[in-house]
Amino acid sequence: MDPKNETSPNAADNQMLNPNAENEDLTLPLESIQPLHKRSASDSLAFVKEPYWHAPSSSAQGRLLGGAAGSSSASHMDPKKLKRLIANRASAQKSRLRRVEYVDKLEKKAEFLEATASLVSPRVTSERKKRMMLLKENAELKQKIEFYDKLLEKQDGEAAMLNIKH
């Protein structure tokens, strides 16, 4: 039976899911989406050889979910599920784009911070050397103060002894 001439409730579903149908705009954006990243082992579809979606094919049913046209065709899929699937894929694509933008932003920030650190590092080293020199000078001055305090006490003691004798 021709899907265009069907009068059952599934006729609208078949027409909507058929890539040759008038409502092609529902699946066309999904089919035209290409992943921006290469799949890794952590991806759920890492070992799938074909993409999850295909461009419109010459087959009458079209394939939305990988595999053979007869085994897993979109014509048997509930329109709500298909709509949700398309929305989920669009959302996932947006999420991947946001993640890529975020990673790029972090990489630029890291480069900026590394450049800043390389500019500031010599100054930090210089300031540490100055601090060490000042600490050393401070310790020397404290020793001199202690020495002169003892010398002053000794001279005061001698002066007091001279005053007592006279």
Architecture overview:
This protein is mainly alpha-helical. The chain has a domain at 3-77. It contains three helices and no strands. It has helices at residues 10-17, 28-32, 79-165. The longest helix has 87 residues, at 79-165. It is rod-shaped and about 125 Å long. Mean pLDDT is 74; it is low at 1-26, 45-51 and 54-71.
**Main beta-sheet strand count, sense and barrel state:** none
Helix content: 55-70%
Structural class: mainly alpha
Q: Which range does the strand content fall in?
A: under 5%
Shape estimate:
rod-shaped
Question: Count the helices. How many?
Answer: 3
| Count of extended strands | 0
Mean pLDDT: 74
SSE pattern, N- to C-terminal: HHH
Multimeric state: single chain
Short overview:
The protein is an all-alpha fold. 60% of the residues lie in helices and 0% in strands.
